[in-house]
From TrEMBL:
<feature type="region of interest" description="Disordered">
    <location>
        <begin position="1"/>
        <end position="25"/>
    </location>
</feature>
<protein>
    <recommendedName>
        <fullName>DUF2384 domain-containing protein</fullName>
    </recommendedName>
</protein>
């Protein structure tokens, strides 16, 4: 059995205008429209299309309602299901590591970096937005949203307020495959690809090429 062809209208043949309120009682939210068709042929095509359009619209509405219901269920379930003991312990460990990164190395806000670089842009985030688009630096969400609504920039990426070139090369090597916090932890954790299993952050200016090579090796390993 062949597929049913859906009639189409081509050209400027339809005009849709809001209908006038003639005082007729209608359910709340219902509106009327006047549809002017340019020709009899277009009118016949439109009339033939209406049953198909009605079916497609009904199917689409049903699909959207189902998707929204699934999203609501997932949202409610996420708040109702208590985390397991292992999940709680993992979250605590990660929270401790995130705090350690910011406490040990410090961080800059976009406004602070704009001031350090004497930026005259009215938008105080313009400078760092440009750096981020060019993959020169990365930012992480601050754990305390009441203190910092916007993302902050781990300070080890900068020297005299300007991005360290090796950071750009590392970000390019990973190609967006690491989340911002995973990047921060990679930079600040001991790395077996580096001499003495040093932390990349400690060699960013002393031996940047070794750090870049370590990033490429890990990126190639994760992509394999």
């Amino acid at each position: 059995m062949g597929k049913t062809a859906t009639p189409t209208l081509q050209g400027d043949v339809l005009t849709l205008q809001p209908g006038r309120d003639d005082g007729e009682c209608r359910p709340p939210g219902v509106r009327t429209f006047v549809l002017e068709v340019a020709s009899e042929a277009a009118s016949n095509t439109l009339l033939a299309s209406l049953p198909i359009l009605d079916r497609l619209l009904s199917e689409k509405i049903t699909s959207v309602r189902k998707q929204r219901m699934e999203e609501m269920v997932d949202f409610l379930a996420a708040h109702m299901v208590a985390p397991t003991q292992s999940e709680t312990e993992m979250a605590q460990r990660l929270a401790s590591r995130h705090a350690r990164v910011l406490n040990e190395f410090g961080y800059f806000t976009a406004e602070r970096l704009a001031d350090m670089n004497h930026s005259r842009a009215h938008n105080r985030s313009a400078l760092t937005d440009n750096w981020r688009k060019r993959n020169q630096v990365f930012a992480v969400p601050h754990p305390n949203k009441m203190l910092h609504e916007q993302d902050v920039f781990p300070a080890f990426q900068f020297e005299d307020g300007k991005p360290i070139k090796a950071v750009h090369a590392v970000l390019e090597a990973f190609g967006g495959r690491k989340t911002p916090w995973k990047l921060a932890l990679w930079f600040t954790s001991n790395n077996g690809w580096l001499p003495g299993s040093a932390r990349p952050v400690d060699l960013l200016t002393q031996n940047p090429q070794a750090v870049i090579e370590a990033a490429h090796r890990e990126a190639e390993g994760s992509a394999a």
